[in-house]
Amino acid sequence: MRYVFPPAAQVSVPVAGSDALFPVRRVYCVGQNYADHAAEMGADGRQPPFFFSKPADALVPGGDDVRDVRFPPATSNLQHEVELVVALAGGGADASPAQALEWVYGYAVGLDLTRRDLQRAAKDKGHPWDMAKGFDQSAPIAALQPLASVGHPSRGAIWLKVNGQLQQSGDLEQMSWKVGEVIANLSSYVTLAPGDLIFTGTPAGVSKVQRGDLLEAGIAGVGELSVRLV
Ligand code: MN
User: Fold this and answer.
1) 10 located within any domain
2) Whole-number Å distance between alpha carbons of 110 and 30
3) Ion ligand 1 nearby residues (CB, 5 A)
């Protein structure tokens, strides 16, 4: 057997402090997992988690340098969402939160870039979010920190600056659904597998950005990420 053309390269994320790469399978994201961001999006109360996904090749794996990200076409309201990303080295279905935590390989800081105008239109029409969330280069991500380095981060600052000005400032302990609960809940819908990443939601303060802006983001103890929109 042969392929009709060469298959795309395996998408991977660097592992901090190592020359190893984490091979990515799928990228899932949780919506509105911090109460203050849910409120700014018009929701109220603690709702069950809901999920969407991005293509694996939407990732922009980062190192220590500022990474260029192409400003996407077809939007006039691109917004940033800084998120704790959990990476799985195990998987399965219908896990308990405690079992789900045993699948974790490590954590990283990531950005869920969003075409907010397209997302609002999709919400209004009951259309899918794919083109609002899953566009090219919509998921910058820093190097993964292995569990052995960071444990399971459950509190600590999560922040994002635009051109040096603080726009998002929250704490991981504000997550409505904790990491184990998020993975467990997702595993009731799909059988999770090694290589899967889950973006776990963003705190309040999302804002519109423009071509030329510098986005700097971080999570205490997990890492930092810098992106230039070009
Ligand atoms: Mn998000």
Assistant:
1) no
2) 13
3) 81, 112, 202
